[in-house]
Amino acid sequence: PLTHLDFRPRRPLGKGKFGEVYLTTHQPSGRLYALKVLHKRLLYNSKLRERARNERRINGALGPHPFIIRMQYAFATERCLCLVLDLAPCGELFQLVKVAHPWKNGKTKPGKFPEQAARFYVAECLLALEFLHERRVLYRDLKPENVLIQRDGHVCISDFGLSKPGVNHPLRGARSMCGTPEYLAPEILRGSHEHGLAVDFWCLGALFYELLDGYPPWFTKDKKKLLERVARRDLELKLPRGLKPKLSKDGELCLRALLHRDATVRLGSDGDAQAVKDHP
Ligand code: ADP
Ligand code: MG
Ligand code: MG
Questions:
Q1: H or E element: which one contains 118?
Q2: Which residues have CB under 6 Å of ligand 1?
Q3: Model pTM score
Q4: How much is the ipTM here?
């Protein structure tokens, strides 16, 4: 059995919203893990504390899946909550986006992420989502920063801080307004209604788009404008700029179907991932 005395932080791996993630060694075995630290003082209201509890509970209760990070152990100190996670040693999918769409003189050079590669990452994330949805977990935080890469190049989704247990309907089960602005599904933005598992398929579409284009769909730096663009019904999906070779017709149709504003007809909204898997 693991105890908290066994773990010593070595170097930072990433910055979290409520703390840091460190590379850590399990002293007795010498094995490497990631130690995610959440500072209690930053969890200043009951909602944030509830999310932290959910993160530990959900991640801890999930059985093994090849594309989902394993939580091995959790403990609390006087000031922190700590999660011991399997190490994903090859960084975030976000870093691959940056390599494929490098910045030059304040602009990105788009279109260097091959569609086949994007399709591979999207498909692996889809299998992870399917596993979560079968266990009634709405993930709600799919984005390139939370898709980690394992040693063998396969993905590992992590960060269950926004996940909600007990959701088993594509449109209902969750209410709170949360997520990353660039990845907020329109039904969450509208706020007045409930949302459900279909939100994760929207995010899958946004991830697909960002891999291809270097930016999330409807991107603009102005957060308010961005949310307006996402929420406006008549907005056309801009296809990835400068993509060479052109995005395939099937790829385009899949993107459009996942990024359908109307959650009731969005690809995957009939309640399972099979429809997305079946897409050409
Ligand atoms: P937050 O909930 O604040 O977004 P995350 O759990 O996403 O925190 O962790 C922040 C960053 O730390 C990640 O984007 C990633 O770069 C790094 N990280 C998190 N977990 C691991 C892990 N298991 N292995 C390697 N790096 C990790
Ligand atoms: Mg994160
Ligand atoms: Mg989080």
A1: helix 115-134
A2: 13-14, 16-18, 21, 34, 36, 69, 85-88, 92, 145-146, 148, 158-159, 161
A3: 0.94
A4: 0.99
